[in-house]
Amino acid sequence: MKNQFQVRYACSPRETKELTTEGLRKEFLIQNLMEADTVNLVYTHFDRYIVGGAVPVTTSLKLTTIAPLKSDYFLERRELGIINVGGAGSVTVNGEKYPLAYKEALYIGRENKDVVFSSDNAKTPAMFYLNSTPAHKVLPTKKISQGDAEVVELGAMETANARTIRKLIVNSVVETCQVQMGMTELKTGSVWNTMPAHVHDRRMEVYFYFEIPQDQAVCHFMGQPQETRHIWMGNNEAVISPPWSIHSGSGTSNYTFIWGMAGENLDYSDMDHCKITDLK
């Protein structure tokens, strides 16, 4: 069993404009999250967000604290959102077991000392995608199944952005301090997500792309609306999107992505839209 982490510092729009392709990827792209028998975490200074992956194969994995938190245990001052993007598994929280099937979610509140990840079958291991933020109060743990999600249909086939949004860990479904997570599934023949694009200075965001077919890719767009940048991404990779940045993407095939947010408020509709014709 391995537990490892990275730290990423916040970048301003001024610095980001000067980055090369390699520099852009180093600052914002998160690769190799899903490694067997490993908990991988990335701590970003944008809203103190933590992005992670846990893949229990031959053994269960315990979520332990990391040096930047200066805490006795991981959730001492934090909350945690989890979505399973692999085979069937379970998360045990202080001795209580929560089974999670593919695309099911779990919210775990502050001050839960023991969090353990397990797979039902080592041949098809669970792959737990993790998002964590600071929390100001204790809230109950809650499982969110596909049937519990708030579902929204957006876009159209004519504009190649027909998609289904499943709000899983949002304040209309489960009470949280600030973490929010959901999933957007692109329909066959559609490739654009979050288009028209938007920004929200009150919140940062992280995208995790999965269900990308073999030999296909997604081009993720970021940067200020008047000076955009792009990062090519593969399956099971995540990207940090600062509050001043748009977040959008286009794939060479349809795909699914998980969005996670934290920041000033919990209003899902709090966003400033960017006209497509104004993007540069």
Automatic annotation (TrEMBL):
One of its GO terms (molecular function) is zinc ion binding. Its cofactor is Zn(2+). Pfam families: KduI. Keywords: Isomerase, Metal-binding, Zinc. Its EC number is 5.3.1.17. Zn(2+) binds at residues 198, 200, 205, 247. Binds 1 zinc ion per subunit. Pathway: Glycan metabolism; pectin degradation; 2-dehydro-3-deoxy-D-gluconate from pectin: step 4/5. Catalyzes the isomerization of 5-dehydro-4-deoxy-D-glucuronate to 3-deoxy-D-glycero-2,5-hexodiulosonate. Belongs to the KduI family. This is 4-deoxy-L-threo-5-hexosulose-uronate ketol-isomerase. It comes from Arenibacter nanhaiticus.
